[in-house]
């Protein structure tokens, strides 16, 4: 009986420690393998100055820029990944719908092509390819798919 009581007390103590520690760390940031794998792949591409890589991930909108209206029009905004790396998203609004209700602090999921730059990189091709010669991308914002 004392052994069972001891195991129960130890179990409750461990549970309490886990609950306490989880308040300081985002579970998604440290334990979601899909997000951490994406962040690691983007971090590697940035460090190795790689481009033309299909990537997916998730990030928080930290800055909304004016649309680029030179040539093909692009909606532009900057996201921050869980890793702290920032990415410029250049979403072609001549091919895909503009994300009209995008706000600071919103979380977006994306799939597109990564291009290296010294500030963290750019993700573009976040839309379907009307010619079928490039892998299609997308943005998911608030459960709505933009492609």
List keywords for this structure.
147 residues, alpha+beta, five-stranded mixed beta barrel, globular
Could you walk me through the main structural features you see in this protein, from its secondary elements to its overall organization?
By secondary structure, this protein is an alpha+beta fold. Helices cover 28% and strands 31% of the residues. The chain has helices at 2-22, 27-31, 33-47, and strands at residues 53-64, 74-80, 86-92, 107-115, 122-124, 138-141, 144-146. A five-stranded mixed barrel has the order 1-2-3-5-4. The longest helix has 21 residues, at 2-22. The N and C termini lie far apart (62 Å). Residues 11-35 have low confidence and may be disordered.
One letter per element, helices H and strands E, the order comes to HHHEEEEEEE
Low-confidence stretches: 11-35
Structural class: alpha+beta
Q: Enumerate how many helices there are, as a single number.
A: 3
Approximate shape = globular
Can you count the beta strands?
7
> Between the first and last Cα atoms, what is the distance in angstroms?
62 Å
From the alpha carbons, calculate the radius of gyration and give it in angstroms. Answer: 20 Å
| Sheet of most strands | 5 strands, mixed, barrel
Residue share in β-strands: 25-35%
Helix content: 25-40%
Give the strand order, joined by hyphens, for the main sheet: 1-2-3-5-4
- Mean pLDDT across all amino acids: 82
């Amino acid at each position: 009986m004392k052994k069972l009581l001891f195991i129960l007390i130890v179990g409750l103590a461990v549970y309490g420690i886990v609950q306490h520690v989880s308040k300081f760390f985002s579970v998604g940031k440290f334990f979601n393998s899909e997000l951490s794998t994406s962040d690691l792949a983007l971090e590697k591409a940035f460090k190795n100055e790689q481009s033309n890589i299909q990537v997916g991930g998730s990030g928080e909108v930290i800055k909304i820029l004016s649309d680029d209206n030179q040539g093909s029009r692009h909606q532009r905004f900057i996201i921050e990944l869980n890793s702290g790396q920032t990415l410029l998203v250049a979403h072609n609004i001549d091919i895909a719908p503009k994300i009209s209700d995008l706000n600071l602090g919103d979380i977006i999921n994306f799939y597109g092509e990564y291009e290296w730059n010294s500030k963290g990189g750019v993700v573009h091709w976040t839309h379907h390819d009307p010619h079928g010669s490039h892998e299609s991308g997308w943005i998911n914002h608030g459960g709505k798919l933009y492609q």
